[in-house]
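Hey, sorry to bother you again with one of my protein questions. A protein chain has come my way and I'm curious about its shape. It would help a lot if you went through both lines with me. I owe you a coffee for this, so here goes:
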Amino acid sequence: MAEGIFAAEIVAECRRRGLLAGAYALRRPRGATFLRRLARDLGEQRKAPRVLLRRGLTLLRAEPAVLRRQTGLGAEAARAGEVLRGVAALLAGHPRRP
């Protein structure tokens, strides 16, 4: 399992090797992501609020391009519920290890 903005980088190679069970790019409402990120970053108090707001707006505008890139690399754009159901279905077909 790989997670994060760069996880899509390995989709093609995993598919080529027969190791890919599923690849998802999380598609969330951009405004909700912006607010969640801003609240987290303000809570951490590592940077000035003005810097965090500017950074958050930049990421908000860049998000569609990030999603297009991830899907272009082979990930499937899906909402959180769809991802959870997809992963649950994949796990249901595999025995659990202790």
Residues 7-92 form one domain. The chain has one domain: 7-92. The beta strands are 24-26, 76-78. The longest strand covers residues 24-26.
